[in-house]
């Protein structure tokens, strides 16, 4: 069943567009979860929070992290889907604060984490990556697959490649080059055999997942519920169409085909009702089921984006259910975590379901697209 929040404040033209969008969703492969009233907050199960694109080099974002309760989430899990901070010192501080607040913290790197513009030490982006991973190990932050209370959690390393974009280019207008729109081309420093201008980086980062294959296989054989997460986008359907983007070439610098292949190898080609992948990078709030896997993005994003609601806006935590799996969903009134999606895993004998509760549910794709001016800003032009 496809269900979306009603938007009584929409104009007549927006309602017409929304009606067309709903019809397309009904005919296509993208579905939205049902939103209903439901269970109590103190229901039985493990809670897994999801967050991406913290960008705590901004003082407002660092203040948001500091404001998180040191008691409310001490038994919860947090998945951080990249872009924590550009500066190494800010990264360390942010992850330390998060680890103080959550029992388990998982992390995968994003592109901003590997920028080397303002670092005092002279190292390239791969050396910085290794330094970040070493720091995570010292802080007790997980960067490898693990099982928490029967739930399999699998971080996936990734990078984008231009050939990921298969949509026809927009013609007839002047569009800035990728070098101008994306600072990765200047802020990252790669060894001579790696480059943003081909698929070498996407292949390199994907190959980093190979060392965990035995662990992944064990998780597949023992866990009925698995969450995978990455920073970059695994499918182009998880980004608005080019005609709705301020920067139409955005799909060329957001995702990886090898990432989607790896996700399918973990969850299965046909997938299951428990399959979920979390991503980040584009700063679009997202929650959709595509070919049997639920894809969720819950970015904190830049302060200016939140103030202007440029990434789809932040709504109250919703309750969602899936009649096919008899899931019961929980409402959270904790406003400090309103920028996180979160999951609850039941552990009763009668219900071993994975519940998904998204605190940044987009009202509609169209609404997010109507405020797409933030896309170019998202790359710090």
Query: Class by helix and strand content?
Result: alpha/beta
Mean pLDDT: 78
Instruction: Specify the CATH class.
Output: Alpha Beta
Examine the coordinates and then state which fold CATH places here, giving the name of the CATH topology: Purple Acid Phosphatase, chain A, domain 2
Radius of gyration: 20 Å
Supply the CATH architecture. 4-Layer Sandwich
The biggest sheet, with number of strands, parallel, antiparallel or mixed sense and barrel status, is: 7 strands, mixed
List the secondary-structure elements in sequence, H or E: HEEEHEHEHEEHHHHEHEEEHEEEHH
Strand arrangement within the widest β-sheet reads: 1-10-11-9-8-7-6
Helix content: 25-40%
Distance between the termini: 41 Å
General form: globular
List how many beta strands DSSP finds: 14
List unreliable stretches of 5+ residues: 1-28, 34-41, 313-335, 346-381
- Beta fraction: 5-15%
Give the domain tally: 1
The total of helices stands at: 12
CATH homologous superfamily grouping:
Metallo-dependent phosphatases
């Amino acid at each position: 069943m496809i269900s979306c929040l009603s938007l009584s404040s929409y104009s007549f033209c927006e309602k017409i567009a929304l009606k067309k969008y709903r019809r397309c969703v009904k005919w296509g492969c993208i579905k939205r979860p049902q939103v209903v009233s439901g269970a109590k907050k103190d229901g039985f199960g493990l809670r897994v929070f999801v967050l991406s694109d913290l960008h705590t080099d901004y003082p407002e974002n660092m203040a948001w992290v500091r404001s998180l309760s040191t008691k409310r989430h001490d038994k919860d899990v947090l998945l951080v889907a990249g872009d924590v901070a550009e500066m190494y010192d800010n990264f360390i501080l942010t992850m330390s604060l998060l680890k103080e607040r959550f029992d388990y913290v998982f992390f995968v790197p994003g592109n901003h984490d590997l920028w080397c513009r303002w670092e005092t030490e002279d190292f390239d982006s791969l050396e910085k990556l290794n330094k970040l991973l070493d720091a995570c190990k010292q802080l007790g932050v997980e960067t490898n697959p693990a099982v928490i209370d029967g739930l399999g959690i699998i971080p996936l390393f990734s990078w984008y490649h231009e050939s990921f974009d298969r949509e026809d280019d927009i013609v007839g207008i002047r569009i800035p080059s990728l070098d101008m729109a994306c600072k990765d081309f200047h802020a990252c420093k790669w060894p001579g055999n790696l480059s943003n201008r081909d698929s070498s980086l996407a292949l390199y980062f994907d190959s980093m997942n190979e060392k965990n294959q035995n662990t992944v296989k064990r998780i597949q054989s023992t866990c009925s519920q698995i969450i995978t997460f990455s920073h970059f986008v695994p499918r182009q359907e998880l980004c608005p169409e080019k005609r709705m983007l301020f920067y139409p070439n955005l799909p060329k610098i957001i995702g990886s085909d090898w990432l989607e292949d790896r996700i399918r190898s973990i969850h299965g080609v046909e997938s299951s009702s428990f399959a979920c992948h979390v991503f980040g990078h584009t700063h679009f709030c997202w929650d959709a089921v595509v070919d049997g896997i639920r894809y969720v993005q819950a970015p904190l994003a830049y302060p200016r984006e939140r103030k202007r609601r440029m990434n789809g806006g932040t709504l109250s935590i919703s309750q969602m259910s899936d009649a096919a799996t008899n899931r019961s969903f929980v409402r959270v009134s904790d406003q400090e975590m309103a920028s996180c999606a979160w999951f609850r895993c039941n552990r009763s004998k009668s219900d071993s379901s994975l519940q998904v509760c998204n605190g940044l549910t987009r009202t509609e794709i169209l609404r997010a697209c109507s405020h797409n001016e933030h896309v170019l800003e998202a790359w710090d032009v």
